[in-house]
Specification:
The protein is an alpha/beta fold. The protein folds into 2 domains: 2-150, Alpha/beta knot (3-Layer(aba) Sandwich), CATH 3.40.1280.10; 183-242, Trp Operon Repressor, Chain A, CATH 1.10.1270. It is built from 8 helices and 8 strands, in the order βααβββαβαββαβααα. It has helices spanning 14-17, 20-27, 64-74, 93-100, 117-122, 139-150, 198-216, 228-242, and strands at 2-7, 32-37, 50-51, 61-62, 81-90, 104-109, 114-115, 126-129. The strands form 2 sheets. Strands 2-1-6-5-8 form a 5-stranded parallel β-sheet. Helix 4 (93-100) links the parallel strand 5 (81-90) and strand 6 (104-109). Helix 4 crosses helix 6 (139-150) and helix 7 (198-216) packs across helix 8. It binds adenine.
């Protein structure tokens, strides 16, 4: 996958894209990343990229003509052009999965009060928010999106299919995990995990995922793919709480 970012702060991406899994993905040739500086497309000797809004009011607006030039330079084909903004559809595992199947993404990072509305009409094909809060710009949101998407590209995570076992992949949160040592300050590990009974371990993990989702994010259960046994377990949890 090739990801191009259009930003006023290309250096912000250097650390995130040069460490850990993002670096491995690049090194393995699974992710081709580049950041373009929007100012290079200002067409102005002062490298101006923003202006005050028509009709008055505070703040500065990123200029549509400048951003269009930057997008056109990045876009020889029909790659999706995604604006990061608090007004977009919210990034979820399902959105990340769909994006991970694209060959190319162009990410446009807004700043200031926003972008000239005509950019949306002329060049933006998708608009994504990483949550209901406002950042000072789209760069951190673009990094979150890149990380969430790149780890789902086949071959990026070590274990094949590891991304399919994540919290949210099947609509549930993951249950608890344990590793050595067997005892930490008096706290031990559930016996089932050391029993060697694979079917029992799988059943316990499923029930713990259901319990955690029910306790922390019950609204997710409405959309999760649940078996009859799952529903019976959830009914038992609800009955136990009512007692
Ligand atoms: N830019 C500013 N706030 C944002 C958000 N919540 N998500 C994506 N881009 C943003």
């Amino acid at each position: 996958m090739k990801i191009e970012v259009l930003t006023l702060f290309p250096d912000m991406f250097a650390g995130v894209m040069s460490e850990g899994m993002m670096w491995k993905a690049r090194e393995r040739g699974l992710l081709d990343f580049s950041a373009r500086d929007i100012r290079d497309y200002s067409g102005d000797k002062h490298r101006k990229v923003d202006d005050s809004p028509y009709g008055g009011g505070g703040g500065m607006i990123l200029k549509a003509d400048v951003l269009l030039r930057a997008i056109e330079a990045a876009k020889p084909d029909d790659a999706p052009v995604i604006l990061l903004s608090p007004q977009g559809r919210v990034l979820t595992h399902q959105v990340a999965e769909a994006l991970s199947r694209q060959a190319r993404l162009i990410l446009v990072c807004g700043r200031y009060e926003g972008v000239d509305e005509r950019l949306r009409e002329l060049a933006i094909t998708d608009e994504i928010s990483i949550g209901d809060y406002v950042l000072t710009g789209g760069e951190l949101a673009a990094m979150v999106l890149i990380d969430a998407v790149a780890r789902l590209i086949p071959g990026v995570l070590g274990a094949e299919g590891a991304g399919q076992r994540d919290s949210h992949a099947d609509g549930l949160l993951e249950g608890p995990h344990y590793t050595r040592p067997p005892e930490v300050r008096g706290l031990t590990v559930p016996d089932v995990l050391t029993s060697g009974h694979h079917a029992e371990v799988a059943r316990w993990r499923r029930q713990e995922a259901l319990k955690r989702t029910w306790q922390r994010r019950p609204e997710l259960l409405k959309r999760a793919d649940l078996s009859e046994a799952d529903r019976e377990y959830l009914a038992r949890l609800a009955a136990a709480e009512a007692d």
